[in-house]
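User: quick one, fold this
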Amino acid sequence: MKDKPLVLIIDDSPVNLMLLYNVLEKHDFNVVLANSGEQGLALAKQSHPDIVLLDVIMPGWDGYETCRRFKQDATLEKIPILFLSALGDTENKVRALHAGSVDYVSKPFQKEELLARVQTHVELAHLRQNLEREVANQTERIQLLFEALQLSYDKAEQSSILKTEFLRNISHEFLTPMNIVLGMTEMLVEDTELTEEQRHFTSAVMKAGKQLMDILTNMLNFSQQFKGELKQVITQFQVHKIVDNVLKRLSPTAQAKDLQISTEIAPSLYMPLRGNRDYMDKVLSKLVDNAIKFTEQGEIVIRVQAETSNDDKQWVRFEVVDTGIGIRDEKKADLFEVFSQIDGSSTRVYDGVGMGLAVAKMFTESMGGEIGVESHLDKGSTFWFKVPCA
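Assistant:
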């Protein structure tokens, strides 16, 4: 801002010019004079005044035309223009405002009123300019922040892709030697005479190997999901056969803990359906395995029901009911997140890295289904998932 505001006066009357000049000069304004619209526009481009006082009736361009010319110039359009005219009727005031002026003072004017209006519009113009500069500065800063954020996202995404690729490769490479370890250990147990101590050792190797194999498989599933490599394979299946396959794999583990597993399958589901049989098998296996892990005594029930729907799909709901330790309410929200643990302390009793339920959720949602849990602490849990089938 200048030390003194600069006022441009455009009026074809020398008397009016000198009168206004004397009034404004005495009240700390610098003044530039022009006797026509054309001259005023040229002076404005040279001096860039803080405000323009403009007469209406002039030879050549009248005040309205002069005002429009100012507003059409990108370097002058924001300079406030105040009309001074003896034409004080409402119609001319409205024309002045439509042309782009900020105010209208009728002649003969009161000196105090004129000074007050000039000072007010100069201050408003400066405030607006400061505000626009501040907005422009903040906008530029926000743009820079967005660009930095986008760069950060891009780097994070690239890093995530590299990590996922590494995870995929390392999991895939580990699976082959782990299969050999498990296969050779199983042959050792079945085809070799072992002492009781040796059988204990091989049993521990088999248990640890299966746990590691499960972790590697979960890691591979997550990396495939991230890269979009999980494919839906729709085949014909029967619900009771999926349940039988899960029981065949997991019943020995339940029997080792003296747990009973029973099944309840709705009669209407003993018919062929179409869906992703492998994913349903995997989700049910993880829920049953989870129930066995957290149940020390009692029983586990696998229940399968048919749900009605408004579409042409047959919704099948699987439930795994246990009499285990249950889950606190505050833990339920994060239960299906990756690496979530019911007990995250260093002294926790139950094994696992918290990936099984997250994988179950991933498979369920990829089939267009839903998964959830109902649980009461120390009374047991009911894990469920439902999927649409043809």
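User: anything notable?
Assistant: The first strand starts at residue 6 and ends at 10.
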